[in-house]
Amino acid sequence: MSQALEVCGQVRQPGSFDFEALTRLPGQIADIAPLVPGRTGGGVRLASLLDAVQPHPEATHLTVESTDGGFSASVPLAAVVESGVVLYRVGWETLPEQQGGPFRFLITDAQACATGGADLCANVKFVGRIALSAAAGRDTRPMERR
Which residues make beta-bridge pairs with 43? Predict the structure, then answer.
């Protein structure tokens, strides 16, 4: 049974995207390493995923949640819409759990979006759900910088 990434909330067409569905979206990134040094895998740009679900105009925040619900990060949508990526593969195989799979959310330009309330901690492993909302969602990230 393949796993799916749920995209819901303030969207016109909530969706569930498995590996095959993600491969059919535009905005594919064959290798994330040139954009995020030290990371491996391929994925799809967040903007392409959002085009597929059509966010409502009032959607201002994006909350990325782990499959077990134990970790979530909520960030202003405008801060990550262009630099967000959902990693889901290595070559043409599912992103392994050892790399945060089956789905992993990364911000390719964390420096630029830091002013929008997103930071490196908004990179989420084991993603199961992305929810759009009109206000900040549940955020379990530590609030103090280490």
Answer: 29, 87
Note the pLDDT tens digit of each residue in 81-136.
999 999 999 999 999 999 999 999 998 876 655 545 555 457 899 999 999 999 99
User: pLDDT by residue (tens digit) across 3-33?
Assistant: 999 999 999 999 999 999 999 999 999 999 9
Domain CATH number, residue 94? 3.90.420.10
pLDDT for the residue 114: 56
Residue 99, CB half-sphere, CA atoms under 13 Å: how many? 19
Is 146 a member of any domain? Answer: no
Supply the pTM of this predicted model.
0.90
Give the C-alpha separation, 58 to 98, whole Å: 36
Retrieve residue 35's tokens.
């954009």
138 belongs to a structural domain: no
User: What domain range is 93 assigned to?
Assistant: 4-133
Candidates 51, 25, 37, 12; CA nearest to 103 is 25
The number of distinct structural domains making up the chain is 1
Determine, yes or no, domain membership for 145.
Answer: no
Within-domain flag for 47: yes
